[in-house]
Every structure is written in C-alpha cells, then in structure tokens.
Amino acid sequence: xxxxxxxxxxxxxxxxxxxxxxxxxxxxxxxxxxxxxxxxxxxxxxxxxxxxxxxxxxxxxxxxxxxxxxxxxxxxxxxxxxxxxxxxxxxxxxxxxxxxxxxxxxxxxxxxxxxxxxxxxxxxxxxxxxxxxxxxxxxxxxxxxxxxxxxxxxxxxxxxxxxxxxxxxxxxxxxxxxxxxxxxxxxxxxxxxxxxxxxxxxxxxxxxxxxxxxxxxxxxxxxxxxxxxxxxxxxxxxxxxxxxxxxxxxxxxxxxxxxxxxxxxxxxxxxxxxxxxxxxxxxxxxxxxxxxxxxxxxxxxxxxxxxxxxxxxxxxxxxxxxxxxxxxxxxxxxxxxxxxxxxxxxxxxxxxxxxxxxxxxxxxxxxxxxxxxxxxxxxxxxxxxxxxxxxxxxxxxxxxxxxxxxxxxxxxxxxxxxxxxxxxxxxxxxxxxxxxxxxxxxxxxxxxxxxxx
Length: 453
Hints:
It contains 14 helices and 18 strands. By secondary structure, the protein is of the alpha/beta class. It folds into 3 domains: 5-48, no CATH class; 60-324, no CATH class; 334-452, no CATH class. The strands form 5 sheets. A 6-stranded mixed beta sheet has the order 5-6-3-8-9-10, with helices on both faces.
C-alpha cells in the first residue's frame, strides 16, 4: 500500500539519501558525493513522487462499541439491562486485536462496549446512555491518532432514523475529520451512505454462519495501523443494492454467495485499495437502509474512483445473480413440511421455523410448529424448544413425573405468535449448562417430546 514501501525504514531526507547510496555517514555528519544529478534524483523521489516517511509507532487509539442486531418486528424494546457492558481493561482483556496493538507498542484507550443478542429495537434510554458515556470518555482522553469501533451494523433505536449515523457524527464532533476511524462489523448490518461518510475504514465478517469475528476485528485494527504508519486518510466507496433477503439465502459457503465473497481478498490486494466488504443485510429491521451493500476502502482520495469502480463491478455482479439467491434446503409450509418428514426414508428430519429464529431477534416463543405436530398426531417428534420462563417455573414447582396443564408461548411475541394450551408429563428438569442456576423442562405432550426454556 505504501507508495514508497521499497524504502521501508526511511524516516527522513537523510535516511533516503543514505538508502540510495549517494552519501556515506561519518560520525555525526554526512559526506556528500557532490553530484548535482544525484541530489536532483533524491529530491524527485522524496518530493515529486510523494514519498512520505512512515511514522513511528506509539499511537494512541480509542476503542468503543455498541453491538446489536435489532428486529423491529418484535413488540418490545431492548433495555440497558439486556446488554453485557464492558468498561476499561475488560474491553481489551484476552482480545486478539488488543494483544496485537499492545505488542506493536500502541496505547489502547478502552472506553465502553455494550453487546446484546438479537432482539427488539434498542430503547432510546439505553442507546443514549451508552453513547453519552462513550463520548465523555472520548472527550476526556484528549488527542488521539485513531479510533477502533467494534460494531454490528444492524443497530436500530427507538425515535432515531439511523442511530449509527448519530453515533459517528457525534464522535466526529469531538475528534474532528482528520482522526482515522476504523470499524468492524457483522455482515448482517444495514449500512447507509451517511454512516459510511463518517468512517475511514471498515471491514465486515466474510462468513455466515460466523466463524471469523476475531479475524475481522484483527484485520480492521491492522488496517488502522497501516493507515497511521503511512499517513493515509482512507475513504470508503459504498453502494446499496436493492436486494432484501433472509439470512438463510446469504450463506457464504453456498453459491453464488461464495463466489462474491471469494472476490474480496483480490479487490483488497489491488494497488491503492485496503479492504472490501459485502453486507447481506438484516431483513427484520424495517428501515429504508435494510438490504445488501458493498464497500471498498481506498487508501486515500486519489484511489477513491478506483474503489468506486470496484464496488460498482461487485454490486452489479450481485445484482445479476439476484434470482439465484435461494435457500440451500427444501422449503414448505409447516403442514407440508410435516407431511414430507413423515414420508421421508431418512431416520431423522429437521424442521426449522425460520420465522421464529432467535439468532435474528425473534422471541423463540412461537407455538405454530407444536400446534401442527399435535394436529397431525405426529409420533416420535422432539420440539426444542419454546421459551416460556413462567411455564418452566410451574413445572419446576410441580416436579418430575407430575401431570401439568399449561398455557405456553405467545407471551413475548404476542403479534406473530399465540398462546397454546397443553397438558403433559414432566420428564426431567435439566439445567441449561453446568454454570446455570436456571432449569429447563423436558415434557411429554401426547407423542411429542417438548423442551421448555
């Protein structure tokens, strides 16, 4: 990326002259070969070609983050208490990206990260409390060289058209336009041009299901450090693509999506370009910016047109394949799916209710599948599981072997789900994991084994 990387280690005019072999260094002085042509060559290389010396390490980098995947179809708000909040050294503890920066001699100034699993949109109170604490910490930190933001990209907040834009603009008011701001993202983010205008560098996950979160954060801070070393002020070419798909159509090891992501390293390796990203988007956030997008990071303004050309080429490729973005498994209505499973010769058949996907912010208390299993009198079926703490508490009080009558589900998502009355036998009361104090319930309902969480 460095236009003068063949002269790595050069930090002054004197170093450049020595590197070219035009002089010899003797003691504390320099002895020049008095050759006008040689001196002119040096000046052309150092000034005319725009060679800038690499900065030494010793930078100050602030870090913060608000990570949330907001599902606006859920009839509840995500509050402060729903977040895991880390402050100070807890933000950087055992993090690969932080270890890397510290090994490079960088002063990392951690502030606050707030993280919650996918759920309803974030309350105004929660967002503003996180934002204001981060901004105050940034204010108190004094001058810095760069900022690393650990984000998700699908944040949506009560009463805010785009809280991510509000967040980055508030940061810019404090640090100005010349501080390099880099951010890492989940590829299920919904990204707007206005948000990108506030960033210099971004990098998104390249795998779904996700296995490269740590790798993406590390890549992002390495890009930040590269920009600081070479005095870059990167810019982002961004294109929204009018494609809205569920996550199940954006699996990165399935074609044609795999081929899209396979192109990213090649684009990122081009002269003057630093990174490239594709966002699949989060369809369950009902906002205008929802959907797919691509970004290419230019090292500085002179490469922005090249970045834009690459972003457009990638976006056009995705658009041309839009009708080939399909589910990688069979799909059907719930009744048809049950009939297909009963007719299957396979020993085990999985049926997934993608409309009640808790990893996309759904409540997990939908009863449709159980209702239809019972209606079809399916035997030898296991449903795992339905989230209903109230029903779990009643079963725990009744005890193993007890016959219970319950009304389950439809208590959190009361818009798209409805409560279902059942009767059955409590078979066991396992704990969720070794460190959990909470019980789950395994019960028999007709010929269906049901797990309540």
